[in-house]
């Protein structure tokens, strides 16, 4: 298989990442079916696309024809069979729960054409954890986007021991076709490169806030002004999701048994209150 053989991409999950990945793929000229078990999430994803694309045209950032093409390329369905049945490439961006992903990959293996590549956009789970739920582990890899996916340029591609060189190369080529810069990791490691670096920064930021050394706002002011990051760690975790930070911490703690890997008390407190950040309009900050 070659990059040119990819005509249709299926994006699984219409949440924080999936809805923007779907629009990225549609803008690159692919037919895209976005699927989710929640009709509400699909409706939100569809209205996002219908609002975002004309807005880009109005801002002079995109031609009308590009927006029209992207909208025509996009479809939304809550039926996995319908969305993935004729896909050449699948990007799974479902909830970060290993059992859900294993079941999805087994279903995708049954549903999709045998040539289809099955990639996971997981933020931290390596694809060997799901590849063996399929009979095509050589066609399984990580393709990891960053939030907001329409803006952030990096895509991490991880080639596990089970992933063929062809699958890794096509995925790198696809990242390029989507206008992204791909980085290919040839060894699996939990969290890959960026989220490992971010986790170290976040752990220290949470520690300082938990100890009462500085408030989240003060830490964000310090990091943005001293290190030149566009957002401080607390505003960023609001954007990427406090629920995600909680799940990552819990999953990692269960894997390593190291108490340092547990989500920090501040994250647990926000998670327990259902304050997940931008998506619930309240996290460390409040949003309109
Ligand atoms: N969706 C789509 N586009 C968005 C957007 C969103 N949520 N937020 C901002 N944009 C676009 C705007 O439309 C604007 O585009 P143009 O310049 O082409 O018009 C551009 O981004 C800049 O937006 P703003 O001027 O409104 O705001 P800003 O300059 O503060 O930028 C930001 C916003 C791009 C989010 C910037 O703050 C930033 O880069 N933050 C850091 C994000 C980051 O670190 N992401 C990685 C997170 S880690 C991760 O994702 C790991 C994981 O596994 C989930």
UniProtKB/TrEMBL annotation:
Residues 191-287 form the 3-hydroxyacyl-CoA dehydrogenase C-terminal domain. The keyword Oxidoreductase applies. It comes from Desulfosporosinus orientis (strain ATCC 19365 / DSM 765 / NCIMB 8382 / VKM B-1628 / Singapore I). Keywords: NAD, Oxidoreductase. GO terms for biological process: fatty acid metabolic process. GO terms for molecular function: NAD+ binding; oxidoreductase activity, acting on the CH-OH group of donors, NAD or NADP as acceptor. SUPFAM superfamilies: 6-phosphogluconate dehydrogenase C-terminal domain-like, NAD(P)-binding Rossmann-fold domains. Pathway: Lipid metabolism; butanoate metabolism. It holds the Pfam family 3HCDH. It comes from the Bacteria. This is 3-hydroxybutyryl-CoA dehydrogenase. InterPro entries: 3-OHacyl-CoA_DH, 3-OHacyl-CoA_DH_NAD-bd, 3HC_DH_C, 6-PGluconate_DH-like_C_sf, 6PGD_dom2, NAD(P)-bd_dom_sf. Residues 8-186 form the 3-hydroxyacyl-CoA dehydrogenase NAD binding domain.
